[in-house]
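Appendix B: complex inputs.
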Amino acid sequence: MYNSLKWLMPILVVSLSACSETGDSALKNSNKESKSTAKSLDDSTTLFAIGTEATKELINGWDIDIAIDGSGLPEGSGSVVEGEQLYDNLCAACHGTFGEGEEQWPKLTGGENSLTDQRPLKTIGSYWPYSTTLWDYINRAMPFPAPQSLEVNQVYAITAYVLNMNDIVSDEFILTNQNLASIKMPNAQGFYLDDRPDTSNQRCMKDCKPPESIVVKSGPTYVSTTQGSPSHSELSNTVSSNGQTIYLSGCNLCHDNGLMQAPKIATPSDWVERQQASKDTIYQNAINGLGNMPAKGGRNDLSNNSIKQAVDYMLETLE
Amino acid sequence: MHGFSPKQQLDLITSLELESQALSSSDRRQFLKNAMLMLGAGTTLISPSVGLANSVSKQPSSNLPPNIPEWSKKLGTGVLTEPYGKPSSFEKNVVRDTVDWLTQDRISSVSMTPLHKLKGIITPNGLVFERHHAGVPIINPDQHRLIIHGLVENPLVFSLEELQRFPSVSEIKFLECPANGGMEWKAPQMSGLQFTHGMLSCCEWTGVKLSTLLAEVGVKPEAKWVLAEGADGAAMTRSIPLDKALDDTIIVYAQNGEALRPEQGYPIRLLNPGWEGNTSIKWLRRLKLGKQPWQHREETSKYTDLLPDGKARQFSFVQECNSVITSPCPEKPFQQKGWYEIEGLAWSGKGKIKGVDVSIDGGINWRPVALKGLVLSKCLTRFGFMFHWQGEPLLLQSRAYDETGYVQPTFKQLREVRGGNSIYHKNAIHTWQVHQDGSVQNVQLT
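Resulting structure:
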């Protein structure tokens, strides 16, 4: 390497003084030299013979995917009963004892007939179209902190139990590589192929709609955390008086979906007990914190008045 | 500045200096003076070896004309002070950010690109948005392989070095998570551009076309799909139609001239230009040819679009035409009245951006604006125009259309056909409300 560089040096010096000439001749030379292969450069069917044979042995170690007809499944089996114990030890901490999902970890059960609801619950039982997907996914990616650590029969057992939790197989069921692919999932018919575009907007340029038709729905104001200039923060501190805006600037994190056992917005049943107290008590609970909820939900930058407005908004959604 | 280390002092002073930049020169002088007094600076406590601290303590405004700046009167640092260079310390707030409540933890999570801080169309490598399902694996490239097998004549295994011997291509393409803006389906929930549109980046990607490798292994005629699989703890898989694989899919090993970053799939990833980012499998280890899609978790349970009738659209690969105004935006308000360049980005997974229209009145009237710089297929395209802001409230919108004639839809049009639960592929015309004080708010028009 060193020798060849030293040899190149004088050529580089010469080429600086006669750049284009040297460049042209170099190009001609390279064309001449590579004449035998030049044709193949433009030929996409040319093979370069780079890479080595992927032997069966090499492939088998990594070939873990399962197809919808069950091909790829290794021989093995596991029962619902075996699966329950494994699930309790390995899965329940995140997915919940009954598959209901702890905090924001995925929920595995429930949501039957909820796909047209305002808030659909997409679970293995209510949404997943193929049983083979479940085995494939548990095998390749679960448990979350220790992927690809389960034995084959453990994967069968856990898959069997999760199907059982979703009322897809019986308590006595034993799942095997023979019967997995034939298990029909409740939402098997719930999917269709991409058929977009599904909108056809036009480039209207003038008087496209009456001005009075515009209603502005506000989102949260931007409040700089680590970023932005002081003038910027000053601008954003003008918090809107709108209860919904305040709600959407933080309360929604828990109260939209009931995280940390928060009573959900627009869900009267979650509020029955709370509404027995006076409105003032509800205000004070929101301001001072209650149960898992810290004071002001952690938004100490908000005034007591803003919190009250957010509460008013949430109560309005129950009506 | 008792109790602060020199490094902490420097950080504090740097942030003060940054914060003061928006002020007028006399205000700025006073601001810094007060701040330094408050911190007890200007005393011998500040290490004289800390260059910036030293200069700031001597009143930085003396650097402005007609004075000769500090930095003009001394020597700077030598070469290789930073063997791998990084941005100016004054740019330290230009970083990716996340919305913690979106995900349970940061291992399977997403971070967003600060689009409001970027110029041109290229996203610097350190700012490309991240989306991982099991964290970023640390992969030794010498111990990594790509296997191509299944319905092929000659299954092959490639090392990185071998992949780099094939003819390479370099393409500037956008990469977007299909969930970009997914939090906005029901209502404007995000406070800034970084969170409404920041799962979007654009790089020059270099690698070998997948078609080149498929020629090498010899695809059997019955093969119609390719399963791509990652080497991370999620062993992420997606089924890709063979037509796409033979068209413009790239096995990428470099971005913006250097090796892929670990969080982008080092040493190799797939890139499906114009398609949802999830299909561009990172840390790629295996490609398998088959007759039909595998229906794995990330193409059934996730990355499918639930529609109002309870059915879900599947294999919705293309990222349809989209655009957003990046200046002004909530993070970048108007600071004063006067002339501004209103700028934005447009992109389409189906080809080139043909044009962009802008409205300042919430979509009543529109005017076409100029596309700036490179206009490439499946690539971010910048647009902009000069605007004289006189303190009036605005409802700012951009509407892009691509070379197929598709025009970016309104939120109303999108919701009419897709409802509010489809999570993915939200490409509606976006509205920024500019208030009279110059602040900008994320809003939706009903």
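Chain B touches chain A through 104 residues (CB under 8 Å).
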